[in-house]
Design goal:
This protein is of the alpha/beta class. The protein has helices at about 10-25, 50-70, 80-85, 90, 110-115, 165-170, 180-190, 210-220, 240-250, 265-270, 275-290, 310-320, 340-345, 350-375, and strands at about 1-10, 30, 40-45, 75-80, 100, 120-125, 150, 155, 175, 195-200, 225-230, 255, 295-300, 325-330, 380-390, 395-400, 405-410, 420-425, 430-440, 460. The chain folds into three domains: about 1-125, Methylthiotransferase, N-terminal domain (Rossmann fold), CATH 3.40.50.12160; about 140-370, tm_1862 like domain (pyruvate-formate lyase- activating enzyme); about 380-440, OB fold (Dihydrolipoamide Acetyltransferase, E2P) (Beta Barrel), CATH 2.40.50.140. Helix 8 runs parallel beside helix 9 and helix 12 runs parallel beside helix 14 (about 350-375). The radius of gyration is 23 Å and the shape is globular.
Length: about 450
């Protein structure tokens, strides 16, 4: 029995792609292993959104070289770095066997056959035309035992923001037909899934036969689904129709990840973001009016070319004004083929030490705000969808609130149940407490027709 190990970097799209790779490999009689040293095939599913992610990938390849030399393990790189670097990766890493892009997952059998039978190093990064692209149909059995799951509804991005490599690694936007999406969601409920997150690089630009707001509303109506989430969004697609969906359907979770990237209009213009801060705040105010208490998170890039201290001060002021639940902030790093990388000298590169100092100030502010938000919940009861045992203490249970706040608590509720938890302690990033009431029992799920081995996939 041959075994595979997939090391996943990056976003939810990559996590989902790794599951699809595992399903393809299962048809080739490969089985997963949680230990890379036991694998006959190792695949690194990569992310190129930041330079640091590429560095992590190259470091991991160095570690897996020893496994290859000792076992003859096949070693491949997929995902966005593969699409970006193509055959250059084979030159950089002489012991690498194959490279394949996100559109080539279904061609893994052919790629492996060429590597093994013809003893050649393979690069397969051709785009599939939008009109011909077929979204991989997920095997619901892969999700058996999970309470929450990702469902791909679109891929690619047409915005071409000047800092972003996604259009070069994921291609143009392609939306999945809504009956396929709803069918996959229904299949997931039959193996116990209670919450789905609709994903895509620019998910609320979805155009799969109905609007994205309509897709959310229909997904919420699938029997067995208790919560619907989505990520990631662009502010210009936060339409009145989407805001109204939050008002109408309580199963659409009150959490919105709305990347702003900067608090400065001049910086946003150089980023090719087609909104001003005033417009962003107007949209956000409407959303909060429609769904009081909604938790808002964001992305912020610090040290974008030409960012002055005055520009950065506006980002701090925006963070204080909006009071984000949390934010994913990081320093700017130039990505190949992007407009910002080509214009960095013209706009003015921000010194690295200045980027780091600004990032530390921003993150310190956000930690304070996050702590103030969570500490205000002490003594309150929150609704939690139980996902299983806590990673930090197997004697405790773990789940999330509708606002996507993580909760570790004392209790005995099984995975898939909905409970009330009294919040007793908080940190900026999580709540802890004790179970006080059972709101909903987990679904009764029939056993699988075919027993399958269970190994975790390692996600970095």
């Amino acid at each position: 029995m041959k075994r595979y190990f997939i090391h996943t970097f990056g976003c939810q799209m990559n996590v989902n792609d790794s599951l699809r790779m595992g399903e393809v490999l299962g048809k080739l009689d490969y089985r997963p292993t949680p230990v890379a040293e036991e694998a006959d095939l190792i695949i690194l599913n990569t992310c190129s959104i930041r330079e640091k992610a590429e560095d992590k990938m190259l470091s991991a390849l160095g570690r897996y070289r020893t496994v290859k030399l000792s076992r003859g393990t096949l070693l491949g790189v997929g995902g966005c770095v593969a699409q970006q670097e193509k055959d250059r990766l084979l030159k950089k890493v002489p012991y690498l066997d194959f490279v394949f892009g996100p559109d080539s997952i279904a061609r893994l059998p052919e790629i492996l056959q060429r590597v093994q039978d013809e003893r050649e190093r393979v690069v397969e990064t051709a785009w599939v035309d939008s009109e011909e692209y077929v979204f991989p149909r997920a095997d619901p059995e892969t999700s058996r035992g999970k309470v929450t799951e990702f469902v791909t509804v679109m891929k690619g991005c047409d915005n071409v923001c000047s800092f972003c490599v996604v259009p070069h690694t994921r291609g143009r936007e392609v939306s999945r037909a809504f009956p396929e999406v709803l069918g996959e969601v229904a299949d997931l409920t039959r193996v116990g899934v209670r919450e789905v997150t609709l994903i895509g690089q620019n998910v609320n630009s979805y155009r799969g036969g109905i609007s994205f707001a309509q897709l959310l509303l229909r997904t919420a109506e699938v029997p067995g689904i208790e919560r619907v989430r989505f990520t990631t969004s662009h502010p210009h697609d936060l339409s009145d129709e989407l805001i109204e969906a939050f008002r109408l359907q309580p199963k659409i979770a009150p959490h919105f990840h709305l990347p702003v990237q900067s608090g400065s209009d001049p910086v946003l213009k150089r980023m090719r973001r087609d909104y001003t801060i005033e417009q962003y705040l107007e949209r956000l105010e409407k959303l909060r009016e429609a769904r009081p208490g909604i938790a808002v998170t964001t992305d912020i890039i610090v040290g974008f070319p030409g960012e002055t201290e005055e520009d950065f001060a506006l980002t701090l002021a925006l963070t204080e004004k909006v009071r984000y639940e949390n934010q994913f902030s990081f320093i700017y790093s130039p990505r190949p083929k992007t407009g910002a990388a080509l214009r960095e000298k013209d706009w003015g590169a921000v010194p690295h030490e200045v980027k780091i100092e600004r990032l530390e100030r921003l993150q310190k502010m956000q930690r304070r705000i996050s702590a103030e938000i969570t500490s205000a919940l002490v003594g309150q009861e929150v609704e939690v969808l139980v996902e299983g045992a806590s990673r930090y203490n197997p004697l405790k249970r773990f789940g999330r609130t509708p606002e996507n706040r993580t909760v570790n608590f004392d209790g005995d509720a099984p995975a898939g149940a909905m409970v009330k938890v009294l919040v007793e302690h908080t940190t900026p990033n999580q709540l802890s407490g004790k179970q006080t009431a059972m709101l909903m029992e987990p679904m009764v799920v029939p056993p699988p027709e075919v027993e399958r081995p269970e190994f975790p996939q390692i996600v970095a």
